[in-house]
Structure prediction request, 383 residues.
Amino acid sequence: MMAPPPEGADFLHPGLAEPRTKEDWFAYVFYEPPPRPVLPPHSVYLAMNEGERRRLNRARSQYHSALVLAWTPAVQHFEAEIFELLDANEYAPPGARPGLLIDGPPTVGKSTLVKMIARKFERQLREDYPGRFSPDRLGSYVPVVYISLADQVTPKQISVAFARYLNTPTGGTKEDIDHHILTALKACGTQLVIFDDLHFLDCSHKEGRASNDHIKYLANHAPCTIVGTGVDLEDSPLLSEGGASGRTTQTSGRFSRQELGTFALDTEADALAWVAVIRSLEGALELYRHEPERLTRHQWKYLHERTGGSIAALHTLIRRSAVRAVTRGTEAVTREVMDSIVLSHAHERGYAKVLELKNRTAPKKTPRASRAAGKTGQAVTDG
Prediction:
């Protein structure tokens, strides 16, 4: 029988929202996912009363909902890049430090990836420099600032987002707010600033150019490494700052741009990387009837077709299938269960195109007469 929930737990939601303040970020850094339930023998599970079984199933669904992004080769690559930049920039002379832009299509895991790496960076700092995080100083040392940009963001909105994150005053002019946040960034020892959704900085418009200039101003005056993520940054006006394509600008001169794409199956190494992600997710399932590595060995191509190689779509499909396998009693992530899950409109359209192409290119089955059919004049098709 499961232990009762702690007092007051009914009023708490364990999920994490996108960080908007340093307290939100600390919650993400300290967050531990629901523990992996220990399944009793299936006969014991079937003998449970309704309440006991419901609580165990809820624990399994909560656990499955928190399956984490695998530490893929792409994550390892960007971890090395970002950590190297942080080391190279730590005691650099005054002025803007080199930064990194992570570019790519939607749903490939850019935001999740950069938060995972930043979380690891801070957790290592907490291990190596515990004195900086002592209880009497908690909150005064803020090594990571995470800012998610909004559509058509203005320079003052960027400053206010920083101020709210750092708990500095948001009143007064933009210059007043900037003074407070720049002072706080130095006092807090901030080393890494993340700008998520940089594609919202549309430098083909006046406000977008002004916001881009404002980020450059902050980069000039804050001794931090800046990492940004965005969709289709290569073809956006961000790097050209609204000018002609290929124009050399301060933004393009300060930031390296690297791509994060969907998983491909073009080479054996590509396929092995994709299969490894599936294996890590499948190995975490807590289901009574799921055959070990069934998805890894038999459904890896289907999973790629279904998700278009998107890590976010794969996680959604596996998580929802696991939850559905529990609630419907199938106790296994099967092709039938996965087919019953409706993913995002974009991924469903992509999968429909894959099926259409496969149907068009599939070889036609031709009748083949058997000896017996020849005697009776009936054709037998190759089934």
Summary: The chain has two domains: 73-259, 265-358. The first strand starts at residue 99 and ends at 103. Confidence is low (pLDDT under 50) at residues 1-11, 244-248, 369-383.
